[in-house]
Amino acid sequence: MSDLRQRVRERLRGELVKQGASSAFEDPQLFAEVDALLRRAADVGDADALLLPEVMGDPATWRLQTAMHYQSHRTPERASLLIFLKRRILMPMFRWLFEYSRDNFERQRRVNQVLFACVQELAAETARLRQQLHQQSPPPASPLPPGPRRT
């Protein structure tokens, strides 16, 4: 099974390079690492496992609301009449548009979730690399003693 996956991944890599993808994908090992990272990000099924939505704050400020809410700023008598007309006449006429848009919003929500997971994976990898770099770098050298002054 892994041999089959390897051949499929190799064919995909070849097609992507042929189509003009990054020249870095010519390295099969690098492509395999990128593929694994993206697959891990796409496999995140739970939005609660993501940090970025927490950083962004209250979901009501950035998450799409796809439910229809009928409201009116008019007097209660006029408002009830207009809401009745919207629900019973206009909404049935435009239901197809609402359902089409809602499906697209759900697709976009899934893409956003995968992108959030990708950003999280890349941020974690960047943090790990920075830690390794700081551990490997020599301690800062002491400043040179001051030289003779010129007057």
Task: Spell out the blueprint of helices and strands.
Elements: H1 2-18, H2 28-42, H3 52-56, H4 76-136
Helix pairs in contact: 2-4
Please mark out the parts with pLDDT under 50 across 5 or more consecutive residues, or reply none: none
Question: What fraction strand?
Answer: under 5%
Helix vs. strand class: mainly alpha
Largest sheet: none
State the end-to-end CA separation: 78 Å
- Average predicted local confidence, pLDDT: 81
Question: How many individual β-strands?
Answer: 0
Number of DSSP helical runs: 4
Oligomer: single chain
Q: Spell out the helices and strands N to C.
A: HHHH
Radius of gyration: 27 Å
The shape is: flat
What share of the residues lie within helices?
55-70%
Which key features would you list for this structure?
151 residues; mainly alpha; flat
Task: Explain this structure.
The structure is a single chain. 65% of the residues lie in helices and 0% in strands. The protein contains 4 helices and no strands. The termini are far apart.
